Amino acid sequence: MARLVFTPQSTVAATVTATKRWVPTLGIWGASAGAGALLLLSVTPLVRRELLEKVPVLGSYYQDKTPASDKPF
């Protein structure tokens, strides 16, 4: 019968193992949260003007082409 011998793992090795395990998951959740925040805040003029209009391909979609005479404020 084989004997199992457990050796203690160093703190650095345990941290590296945990980091390798959690980084992809946290990256996916972070990207999803960022996309959701941009979706919800895309109607805010500050976010639209300062962030979304400066995206190279999609910037023209978010530009406000409403004449000044038709704006209420």
From TrEMBL:
It comes from the Eukaryota. It holds the Pfam family QCR10. The chain crosses the membrane at residues 28-47. The keyword Transmembrane applies. InterPro entries: Cytochrome_b-c1_su10_fun (IPR019182). Keywords: Membrane, Transmembrane, Transmembrane helix. One of its GO terms (cellular component) is mitochondrion. One of its GO terms (biological process) is mitochondrial electron transport, ubiquinol to cytochrome c. This is Uncharacterized protein. It comes from Agrocybe chaxingu. The lineage of its organism: Eukaryota, Fungi, Dikarya, Basidiomycota, Agaricomycotina.
